[in-house]
User: Fold this.
Amino acid sequence: MLTKTLYTLSTVAAITLSSTSFAAQQILRITPEVQQTQSSQVQLHVSYDTSDANSVSGLGLRVHYNSKQLSYNAVSSVLQDSLQPIGKPQPDHADYDNDPNTDTYLVLAWLNLNSNWPGSTLPAALFQISFNITSQFSGHTAVNLSASSTASGYIFQSNSAQINQ
Assistant:
């Protein structure tokens, strides 16, 4: 919290401002946000932007999904600048995305010590991810994003993708 104190001749007033109201944002978008599927596979595109158009030191990102309904297939067309090794799917015991229906996540991360990431014009295509539809798929499921780390001074914002049968 950022606190400023203003003094006048007869009154003392304290104004408390939330520092997050001024924080820049690292913004991720999944497209399509809603996808109807009759096929055995679904592919989502993830793009990256910032609210202030600045380059940053990177991003750590989790892609969450329900492993009973989707199985991870592949990540492709990944922005290579400052990419760290891509993690393997792992259980989401901590519920990082605050969605009890997702139980697994995959980690992708980019780190640039010179704070020159993503090194391209914004918004930037970050990656594509594909999932196989499992035989247990029924109705709908979500693919969510959460941050494992953000650039200093930035907060994370994203949407979810809804996969419908």
Notes: The two ends are 45 Å apart (CA to CA). The chain has one domain: 24-164.
